[in-house]
Amino acid sequence: MADYYPAFDISPVPTPTLDTAPPEVYRGIYAMPMFVTVPTSDLAASADFWIRGLGFIDLFTVPGNITHLRRWAFQDTLLVPSGRSPEVPLVSVTFACVLSQIDEVAAACEELLPGCTTGPRQTPWNTVDLEVVTPENTRVILTAARPLDPHSAEARFFESAGIELPEV
Questions:
Q1: pLDDT tens-place string over residues 101-140
Q2: What pTM does this model have?
Q3: How far apart are CA 144 and CA 133, in angstroms?
Q4: Domain 31-83's class?
Q5: 92-162, what's its fold?
Q6: What phi and psi values does residue 74 have, to the nearest 5 degrees?
Q7: Which of 58, 59, 67, 71 minimizes the C-alpha distance to 25?
């Protein structure tokens, strides 16, 4: 017996037909289960390409720091200023997890490849992040949301970017 089952009802990808219309761009704010981060030397030019060429929207921008692009639900890309050395992976992929997984994953990865992890570290956007560089030099970030204190610096960070705080 298979350990999987059809779950097409939770996917933003429409049923394929010869005349399938694409879903609308999703403009809601949600906890992203996964996204890519793309460093660029020209945020405006990169955003323009992703928007006019690939059909993404600028969900929000913090000038000079980040542009959050979105296409369909769960198709998120973060453009950030570059500045890394060539031996460090350029593109990274981020996967959501829960706080209790961070230390467990760090220990397992360090056992397999000593020195491959950085962190965990707290971020201004209210997460704890663990960076792992895999044997093939892929930068993987595991990110776990922390409970949000509506009076915290992290809450002010969200508000300054125009993101409404979730109801508690």
A1: 999 999 999 999 899 999 999 988 888 999 998 877 788 8
A2: 0.71
A3: 18
A4: alpha beta
A5: 2,3-Dihydroxybiphenyl 1,2-Dioxygenase; domain 1 (3.10.180)
A6: 70, 15
A7: 71
